[in-house]
Amino acid sequence: MATRIQFENNCEVGVFSKLTNAYCLVAIGGSENFYSTFESELADVIPVVKTSIGGTRIIGRLCVGNKNGLLLPHTTTDQELQHLRNCLPDQVVVQRIDERLSALGNCISCNDHVALTHPDLDKATEELIADVLGVEVFRQTIAGNILVGSYCTFSNRGGLVHPHTSIEDLDELSTLLQVPLVAGTVNRGSEVIAAGMTVNDWTAFCGSDTTATELSVIESVFKLREGQPTAIVDDMRKSLIDSYV
Amino acid sequence: MSGGRKRPAPAPFAGFSPFARSLLFSPASGYCKLPLPNASAAADGPHQENAGMPPPPPKRAKQAEPSSDDEERHSSDADGASGSDSDSSLECSSSDGDDASQELETVQADFAFFDPKPSDFHGVRLLLKTYLDSKPWDLTGFVDLILEQTTVGTVVKMADDEEEEGEGNGGDKGDGGNDDDLFGLITVLNLGRYGENRCIKDLKEYLLAVCGNKDSEKKLKSLLEEKASSVGLLVCRRFVNFPYEMVPKLYDSLFDEVSWATEDEPTQELQDSFRFKQYLLVARILERKTNPKHNAKNNKDDDEEPVIYPKLEDEIFRELSSWSFTFPIRADQSAQQEMKNYKEMGLVMCVKAEAIPKFRKRLEALVSE
């Protein structure tokens, strides 16, 4: 299910939050509304943690993570690091890395199996990503943009990329990532996909400017609609036994 | 945070938007002279680094001659954000290498005024993000309202953008972000005509809620309710580095369009909706914090201005207004060194329509100084 939300009149929800299959990080500040929307969707399933990174609220763009781990930039303070280690589940490895390109969320995009990274990332960082996040790393560009973390977002079930991605690139990326991909926009035509939305395997949060068309594309490519009770009634009807004769 | 790690410089705005890139890839055909009157340059200086607006391109234009060389050296800027910004943008900026004392780079830019169009959505939304405080309101609806009113209202963009779009190639322009690069916006909305729209309702509610002064509250209430059909909400937003010479022209174009609308609009009702008797303005100012400790060393404080107006014409408006009130802004305050003695306040003013010609004269005088 995709939900529309905003952070202090700002539709770039992917900037102020980071959603994975094992946890969710949310920025401090903003109204309680932002936090409570996440809580109401996710509270029973995964922890929702309020945090800042390096004293800033743009946590979604500074960190990158999946169910196996979380990577933080060198600007993260010791308190923030400790706070995250305390709040996140034990199986999530929280690591602060020394990388010149400190906006990790803009440079790296990943799911639980594969990661796409900025072509200029350090070799050491690439190894750390493979290690901590448990993923296979590919250096790529998206529609000629090196900030792959900003212009695409993908979960284990599907992905959305920059609208100007060519068909060949889409096919190539889809093969690398092993998930279906679609080129589209979010927040009423914004090309910065990952800033405008955040997604995991069963839910997505998009900026409130996202049109109904964009939302339906998101729900279909990330296969979010199938979680609905109606799926059981409509698709599985024939296999259900209603009554015994 | 005492963790010992330093904050990174704020992420450069150019990372997401072609804003800075388009400014530097600006057309070389013709150029506008942008000499700044010293008065406004000095006044603009301290609050230009205010992080309330996206950071401006590294330097202002000081001379008009084009030069052909790429510039490698640039004066280091106190604002860390432009440091990383300039690295990628330097190859396009040109400056006069001979003049050793010349520390500023020349940027050539052609600005043009356009009618609002639906494709300006993102640019206008960006400019209006800080219009009210951080409390959620129907900003999207407000932007849509402004873009629908094409007869009165102006947006300022780079001069070349419109021609590219006119070629009818749909969304296939090389740089898809061109149409987003708005530098300024001015419009006036009739509060009575749009009174039923959710955004205007939200705005009225907000203003009544933040008004602390009983007296102003009464006047504001009457303006928003009984007199709404003759009240225009004057919205003027622009980036911090917007060349000040264009501001009087911006206001001129607005008031001219308003008077043309009173004749050109198709129905009598619409024509009347532009016969404004009063204008309502919502602006931002910086007020000096009154610190009890400072009163002891009061000599130091006398040098500082009690109020700073990021938009100079707001000072003129305030003097000509029939009434006004200020309210505190709760959103994140700027942490700039020069600004730490000031706190950001909102300012609401009501200006009678008869005072407008006086305003226009004073604005011209201010710029020609």
TrEMBL record, chain A:
Keywords: Cytoplasm, Initiation factor, Nucleus, Protein biosynthesis, Ribosome biogenesis. GO terms for biological process: assembly of large subunit precursor of preribosome; cytosolic ribosome assembly; maturation of 5.8S rRNA; maturation of LSU-rRNA; ribosomal subunit export from nucleus. It is found in: Cytoplasm; Nucleus, Nucleolus. One of its GO terms (cellular component) is cytosol. Its main location: cytoplasm. CDD domains: IF6. Pfam families: eIF-6. Monomer. Associates with the 60S ribosomal subunit. Binds to the 60S ribosomal subunit and prevents its association with the 40S ribosomal subunit to form the 80S initiation complex in the cytoplasm. May also be involved in ribosome biogenesis. Belongs to the eIF-6 family. This is Eukaryotic translation initiation factor 6. It comes from Brachypodium distachyon. The lineage of its organism: Eukaryota, Viridiplantae, Streptophyta, Embryophyta, Tracheophyta.
Automatic annotation (TrEMBL), chain B:
Residues 78-95 have a biased composition (Low complexity). GO terms for cellular component: nucleus. It holds the Pfam family BCCIP. Residues 35-101 are annotated as: Disordered. Belongs to the BCP1 family. This is Protein BCCIP homolog. The gene is LOC100844129.
